[in-house]
Amino acid sequence: MSSKNDYISERMATKLFQNVLALAFAISEVNGDPKLLPNVTLGFHLYDSYHNMMLTYRSILDLLFKSHRLAANYRCTTQKNLISVIGGLGSDVSSRMADILGLYKIPQLTYGSFALEERDTSQSSRFFRMVSNETHQYSGIIQLLLHFKWTWVGLFVVNDESGNRFLQVVEFLFSQNGICSAFTNRIPSQPFWQQKYSTSDLGSTSDLSFIRSKASVCLVYGETMTLMWLSTVLATVVLGDKETTLLGKVWVLTAQIDLALNSLQRGLDFQLFHGTIAFKIHSKEPAGFQKFLQNITLLGMQGNGFLKDFWEQAFDCSPDFQEPGKTSDTCTGEEKLESLPGPVFEMSMTGHSYGIYNAVYAAAHALHIMYSSRLNQRAMLKGGKIEMQDLQSWQLHHFIKDVLFNNSVGETISFNENMELGMGFDIINVITFPNTSFFKVKVGRVDPDAVDGKPFIIDEDLIEWHKDFNQALPVSLCVDCCPPGYRKEKKEREKICCYNCVACPEGMITYQKDMEDCVKCPDDQYPSKNQDGCIPRIISFLSYQEPLGVSLACMALGFSLTTAWVLGTFIKHRDTPIVKANNRNVTYILLVSLLLCFLCTFLFLGRPVKITCLLQQPAFSIIFSMAVSCVLAKTITVVLAFLVTKPGSSMKKWVGRKMTNSVILSCSFIQGGIVVVWLRTSSPFPNFDHHSLAMEIIAECNVGSVLMFYIVLGYMGLLSIICLTVAFLARKLPDTFNEAKFITFSMLVFCSVWVSFFPTYVSTKGKYMVAVEIFSILTSSAGLLICIFFPKWYIILLRPELNKREQIIRRKD
After folding, report:
1. pLDDT tens digit string along 757-797?
2. Architecture of the domain whose range is 1-283+352-377+391-478
3. CA 403, CA 399: separation in Å to the nearest integer?
4. Which residues pair with 502 in a beta bridge?
5. pLDDT tens digits, residue range 306-318?
6. Is the CATH code 3.30.450.20 the one for domain 547-809?
7. Quick check: pTM over 0.85?
8. 632/661 Cα distance (integer angstroms)
9. N or C: fewer beta carbons within 10 Å in the chain?
10. Neighbouring residues of 327: CB distance < 8 A, sequence distance ≥ 6
11. Comparing C-alpha atoms, which of 88, 102, 162 is closest to residue 355?
């Protein structure tokens, strides 16, 4: 690589000269390394694309076909030998360069991150990209926006082919990830000073609608000139408007952009970009680079023509020492680069400079290997010197492709199958100061090949935002977030990021902001009052620890003891006429049945388990059927006893123990048969009901077959109706101890209780349903006990004089 300084734009941003100095630094290191390319001196040519495709072609043709003998700061005895080209920064320039360089098979190493368009894929073998593909940067941008939940984003895109490709890709990625572009401003590809715009014309050539946009985040895509144009527009038009408040925005810059100002922009307020988030090509600082920059002076490098132009722009002075009156000030030649503010010149190595630095070393290592190869080396002895055969640039392709080395900072340099270095991108936060200087803080990383499996990392605690946000996380949304308890509903003819918030229907929740759909809580939870979360549901059953359960248990125990007392009294006075008068064996069976009825209510209390569920309804139905059967047997006995007393009655043979036993056994066995069928087909089992009550899970005994349950209840109802009918018909029979009157009243109570039981039972849920059944069992059983046995118990204990045979055989007048 020989050198020549040809076309350099007069208005080229001074900060871009750092790339040139990085190139010079790398070449000086290579030339000073005795192990790398010994006896070979590298030089370089500089050409400017002028941000114009036609001039790009012209520069490449000049490079190929114009002869130059002098290299900047070097003197060689041979003509230039072009072996590779480093550039350009953007895809448009790089592609145009490849159009010509590809014809001559000259290796091209690019230091800008960009994605190739379809027509360039066939040329990818001529591109050796020193940075990661721009597609990885797209992924990083999306991850950044999603991380901070920025869904309403403004776009500033350079108005050229690369900008068009960027818009196509990013709009597609936005739609896939629920992000919308609030506006899209196209920035001229040519700087305004080249288009000769006046400051007053900037407002008319720029779409300033973004000033009123709710988008707090603006994504800028382009090159350094793009940001320079944008900063001028913002400073001279937006901030100059008294009706416009200070523009608090989060600027997100792509990796092609350097924070730079030129000599025309020195007076601009760079603090507008305080808090900027910028993607930066991964870089490290080679040892000696800062010292190299610190030692550069105009007097010390007067042979470099490009440095003279740079000095004039950077220090705003005339480097012509012979004619000091040409500009307002004359350079002393001793100015130091470190005195320049950051936007004019940055003393650390940028991502682009690092790419150029590695590109020089990649070409140098490939050239070294090619020189060392026996197949490509021929020495000819002439006059005591060894002259190497001239090399052809096309021969270098293979060696660059397979190059592998560690650079001076210890990073491995090698190309992957796509002919690029997979170093990824750094994410930096720009902190500006009133003196136009700034500081870059690395806050994240985008590395698709990360060994830890985390391609995107961001530490938001390190980020300092623009002062308008008061260090709170900026919000960039079309509408305020839908709070938990609400869901998003799309607006007609609006982008998906602009929506209405609609409350969730009853029984459903949203537990995060901006959820698309409401969801149901798990079965063991229920929605909170604001429908923004789920609360664990308690398991509900009728327990002994609550007042209702204790009350029912006490009632059951009290009636059980009373029944046992009555039974004991009747057994003690078993030989008295009043006990013997109405079939005392049936009386005992009835009292035992009522005692069991009261005790079976304890099966309904407490948490249901398998054994209690199996016993609850079957035991209740059989015991109650036996009790009603006893009452029926007593009623039939009364009727038959009256009929037997009539002269010539044939009913005498039906009166006796055999008849009563038959009634009790037959009625009970029928119910028992129904219960057996029930247990064999679909027996009751413990179950959790998640649906009947919103805030509780009901622990219940599922009856299994609902049909069999109602058949059992229906059979008991049938027996009750028969008993009530018979008793009602026998209520006026002339007998002193005629039980039919008491049985009629008791069966009225019994039937009233169970008739009212059905609607109440069906309309209640959970433990209250169980309480209704227990209460019905207790009251109906108590009705039988009190109505049938209390009069007799009263006579036995309190009126023993009535408990005589004479009273039994006495007839009413």
Report:
1. 888 888 888 888 899 999 999 999 998 888 888 888 888 88
2. 3-Layer(aba) Sandwich (3.40)
3. 6
4. 487
5. 677 778 777 777 7
6. no
7. no
8. 11
9. C
10. 312, 317, 318
11. 88
